[in-house]
């Protein structure tokens, strides 16, 4: 879905806000596997889109990649996982 929307609309601020918000909502309301999978799919679509540009990618896409990466990193770091120690 994200790849389609990026292809159709480009990296405008409205779409980037929507994608950031959808990752935030899935982290807040969904189970771990769904949240990580959804965030990863959005992140992969954004990185693929940004990588298509020979010059600089749109700043909105770069900011969204950074924000979503940071949010997912914090989410994973905050998890208590069985059988492991927390490195961080």
Please sum up the structure shown.
The protein has 88 residues and is mainly α.
Secondary structure topology:
Layout: H1 2-9, H2 13-29, H3 32-50, H4 59-77
Helix pairs in contact: 1-3, 2-3, 2-4, 3-4
Describe this structure in words.
By secondary structure, the chain is mostly helical. It is 72% helix and 0% strand. It is built from 4 helices and no strands. α1 runs parallel beside α3. The radius of gyration is 14 Å and the shape is elongated. The mean pLDDT is 87.
Features:
88 residues, mainly alpha
- Sheet with the most strands, sense and barrel status: none
Strand content: under 5%
Low-confidence regions? none
Rg is 14 Å
Query: What structural class is derived from the secondary structure elements?
Result: mainly alpha
- What's the number of helices? 4
The general outline is elongated
| Helix percent band | over 70%
Secondary structure tally: strands:
0
Order of helices and strands: HHHH
């Amino acid at each position: 879905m994200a790849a389609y929307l990026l292809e159709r609309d480009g990296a405008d601020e409205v779409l980037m806000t929507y994608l950031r918000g959808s990752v935030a909502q899935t982290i807040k309301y969904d189970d771990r596997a769904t949240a990580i999978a959804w965030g990863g799919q959005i992140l992969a679509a954004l990185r693929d889109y940004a990588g298509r540009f020979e010059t600089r990618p749109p700043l909105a896409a770069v900011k969204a990649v950074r924000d979503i990466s940071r949010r997912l990193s914090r989410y994973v770091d905050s998890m208590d996982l069985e059988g492991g120690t927390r490195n961080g």
